[in-house]
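REQUEST ID: PR-0412
SUBMITTED BY: lab tech R.K.
PRIORITY: routine
TASK: structure prediction, single protein chain
INPUT:
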Amino acid sequence: INAEYMGLPIVQVGFFFPYFFAYMFAPQLCHRIVGYIEEGAVRMYTNMLADIDAGIIDNVPAPRVAVEYWNLPEDATLRDMVLVIRADECDHRLVNHYLSDAIREARHNKMRPCVEFRVDLDPGGQTDWKRVQN
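STATUS: complete
OUTPUT:
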């Protein structure tokens, strides 16, 4: 058994509980931190692309699992795979920074996110989603 794999669950649990409690009290900060982590990933994949282009890293065929997961062409290369992973990390970065901004804006305006929807229960017990008219 690989020691790295044995330590992985410990690290995950060690990260999960502090992050969980931090998110309860500071979700804006947690989304901002994750956004910055994703920015680091985007930079890392950009550097990896430069290394592939420079011949430092061989542009081997993409692994089968990546071809299937990312719906890549059968002849996809490592470079193709890194491009789609970088784009995905970029999306994660944008989403987390957006969520952090949205939470800040909601607190500044003393509103709760998603207040434009409410659930009305009719006497028969049927759930009816209605748009709140301002």
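NOTES: The radius of gyration is 22 Å.
REVIEWED BY: pending
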